[in-house]
Amino acid sequence: MSTDTREPAKPVLEFKNATLNVPMLILHSVNLAQIEHQLLEKISQAPDFFKHSPIVIDLQDINSHDLSLDVQTLIELLRTNHFLPVGIRGGNNEQNQQALTLGIPYHSSHAITHPVTEKKAETLKPSVTDEQPTEPVENKFINTPVRSGQRIYSRGDLIIAATVSAGAEIMAEGNIHVYGGLRGRALAGVQGNANSRIFCSRLEAELISIAGNYKINDEIDSDNLNKPVQIFLQERALIIESI
Amino acid sequence: MARIIVVTSGKGGVGKTTTSAAIAMGLAKKGHKTAVIDFDVGLRNLDLIMGCERRVVYDFVNVINEEATLNQALIKDKRCNQLYILPASQTRDKDALTKEGVGKVLEELSKDFKYIVCDSPAGIERGANLAMYFADDAFVVTNPEVASVRDSDRMLGILSSKSRRAEQGDEPIKEYLLLTRYSPARVKLGEMLSVDDVQDILSLHLLGVIPESQSVLNASNSGIPVILDEQSDAGQAYSDIVARYLGEDRPHRFIEEEKKGLFGKLFRSK
């Protein structure tokens, strides 16, 4: 033992749990040439974004199709393209061992999420469409007027067969339908679903928002006010279209 | 069991107390035993409008605190023996009201009375919440202007979510719209919202329109519920409202500007 008798000083370190957002690379194919080709294509779209980006490789899909992949070659491929692989996920024993010898930890595949956007899955490999059965969405239906000061939240779609008063706030993770005057605030896709839409039979809203992109009444083209419309997001711009 | 009616609005000064006094008197005159309660503790006015302010000994808060019995506090109206008034305390504030206390008083009144009219204070705080909590029917008093309509809308939201009926999942409170201080001439000039405008926003069953009238002020100042002034337009409008509430079918009046003939112009009344 060391003879150094230090005072029990303040702790210089501590362990804490942290949740970090790390991009995940989900593979649908084991064809490394194809992977590299599409990877380069992606990088060319946003070179700075991907440079030195940490990345987790998800192997669950290819393993579920019994395709074998050489993890070492893949990791080398990523490194030469300036990615910093920080883990693999959903790998089999052999792949996990391979990763460990390269100093890359592996993670269990529990709570694995499916491709965030369908678009991503499409560009990578459109033929693989073994989507999980979708979770039951909790749509909400209301047929009494939503009064000023009331707030309504729906985990799925929100359907209101009455008016929404000024000063009321209706929110949905999915679409919003109002079969009546919409005078309050309507926020669709509040958890970030940019494909959600707002439909109403009479647009007089104080504020409309889809996935955080909003417009206040003053910014709504007067041609669209007091008319039946649908509202959707196109390239981060709210489009109001009469129906 | 009594039917509990709350007269509410959210906004102040729209005519809640005038309406409470008028409809309580109207119901009593139709032969129904009626009690009218002033929930505006600290700013009591109902006794003034009813003309019984000099006869107040005990009040609503005394009854809640069990310092007096209900019979001691109830004031019998001198003009109609079916009508009783439970005045508010002027020296206390709304915190003196408790849900249990109010519930107990209403339950006791229910045994004896056919209708209980609760005159709500303005605002959406304790007094207003307790006035509407136990209600079966709500008379929402609204002036034809945007602030009042907005506040009524807010009140309707509270009625549908925070009342006893809402909490227990019973049939919701029946809501009726009373449009007060209505002036067809000013609607025509675009200075006032029309009945249709208000209906469009509130989508509520219209129980009646009370025209803007000097008789309301006169009645308040003299402590006589305006419904007793049978000559006045406002008095007649309240009579219609009581009749409609009790199930009679009466056409709406006072919505259109009155066309006065030559004699009308010469001998303009009120």
What does this structure look like?
The complex is a heterodimer of chains A (about 240) and B (about 270). Chain A is α/β, with parallel strands linked by helices and about 240 residues long. Chain A contains six helices and 15 strands. In chain A, strand 14 (about 230-235) and strand 15 form a beta hairpin. The radius of gyration of chain A is 25 Å and the shape is elongated. The relative contact order of chain A is 0.08. Residues about 110-130 of chain A have low confidence and may be disordered. Chain B is α/β, with parallel strands linked by helices. The interface of A and B includes residues 144, 146 and 147 of A.
Number of strands of chain A: 15
Strand content of chain B: 15-25%
Structural class of chain A: alpha/beta
- The rough form of chain A would be described as elongated
The end-to-end distance of chain A, rounded to whole angstroms, is: 82 Å
Q: Give me the number of helical elements of chain B.
A: 13
Radius of gyration of chain A: 25 Å
* Helical stretch tally of chain A: 6
Strand portion of chain A: 25-35%
Task: Report how far the terminal alpha carbons of chain B are from each other.
Answer: 41 Å
What fraction, in percent, of the residue positions of chain A are helical?
10-25%
The side-by-side strand order for the widest beta sheet of chain A comes to 5-7-9-11-14-15
- Helix vs. strand class of chain B: alpha/beta
Strand order of the largest sheet of chain B: 3-4-2-5-1-6-7-8
- Please give the share of residues in helix of chain B: 40-55%
The whole-number mean of residue pLDDT values of chain A reads 82
> What is the rounded Rg of chain B?
18 Å
Q: Quick recap of the structure?
A:
The complex is a heterodimer of chains A (243) and B (270). Chain A is α/β, with parallel strands linked by helices and 243 residues long.
